[in-house]
Design goal:
Radius of gyration: 16 Å
Distance between the termini: 37 Å
Shape: globular
Number of helices: 2
CATH architecture of the largest domain: Roll
Number of strands: 8
Order of helices and strands: EHEEEEHEEE
CATH topology of the largest domain: 2,3-Dihydroxybiphenyl 1,2-Dioxygenase, domain 1
Largest sheet: 4 strands, mixed
CATH class of the largest domain: Alpha Beta
Strand content: 25-35%
Helix content: 10-25%
């Protein structure tokens, strides 16, 4: 038996405002969010995974996508997010140039359709076409 275990592993990221994160992930995105004994957010995924969000006074937003949400209909998912006030058009003049909805239309050489957005702390998340 080894001391290192991979069961119950989880990912984590920092935010600058734990209350804003709780509202965004719980209310806006509809995720299962609770506050643990240390005041951190436990975000439970419907498939059993978990994510920890913690307040960090000198937080700097991640420069990469911290969380991806595969969806069956990316256009409908973007419309739903936009209706909740989430801005999906965050890349304009770069290699990730998106259409008017904020979706980078993929293909065989570029990957799936994907739309990026930010949480209140500036971390980048994405919805992407599943399959």
């Amino acid at each position: 038996m080894t001391a290192f275990q991979t069961t119950h592993a989880f990912s984590g990221f920092s935010v600058d405002d734990i209350d804003a994160a709780r509202s965004f992930y719980g209310d806006t995105l509809g995720m299962d969010v609770s506050t643990n004994a240390m005041g951190f957010l436990d975000i439970r995924l419907s498939d059993g995974g978990a994510i920890l969000a913690y307040a960090k006074p000198n937080h700097e937003p991640a420069s990469f996508t911290i969380l991806n949400f595969p969806v069956d209909d990316i256009d409908a998912a973007v419309d739903e997010l936009n209706a909740k006030g989430v801005v999906t058009k965050i890349y304009d003049d770069s290699e990730f140039a998106t259409d008017d909805k904020g979706i980078l239309r993929g293909g065989p050489e570029t990957g799936p359709d994907i739309a990026w957005f930010r949480d209140p702390a500036g971390n980048v998340l994405a919805v992407m076409a599943a399959g």
